[in-house]
Design goal:
Layout lengths: L9 H10 L3 H17 L7 H10 L3 H17 L6 H11 L3 H14 L2
Helix pairs in contact: 1-2, 1-6, 2-3, 2-4, 2-6, 3-4, 4-5, 4-6, 5-6
């Protein structure tokens, strides 16, 4: 699809998420969905659909999405073990999905 992927400052993304009471977090999810999927060279659901499905399913789809993003991060890093997918899922289950997003962003920043 050839889109421009740019690095983001992880600390600022977390701060903006806190300042905006989570609104920026959804924008970050939207961007991470696109960026990680493009770097992994896989087709993906639009970021808007991820957000809507996550809200409709009370977060269950979001946990699935975290797992899939972990698999894609493994693919980008050339490690097919699946450890990252499990890590992202566990972090999401414990309410620490912002850590998963930070790790995704780190993968994107390192692979540009």
């Amino acid at each position: 699809m050839n889109i421009e992927i740019r690095p983001r400052n992880i600390a600022l993304a977390i701060v903006f998420s806190l300042i905006t009471c989570g609104i920026y977090l959804w924008y970050w999810v939207y961007q991470m969905n696109r960026d990680v999927s493009e770097l992994a060279d896989e087709e993906y659901t639009s970021g808007a659909a991820v957000i809507v499905f996550s809200i409709i399913t009370c977060g269950i789809y979001y946990l699935y999405w975290l797992y899939k993003m972990g698999e894609r991060c493994d693919k980008i890093n050339n490690t097919e073990k699946g450890d990252t997918a499990i890590l992202f899922l566990i972090l999401g289950l414990f309410g620490l999905s912002v850590v998963s997003l930070a790790l995704m962003q780190d993968t994107v920043n390192k692979n540009l």
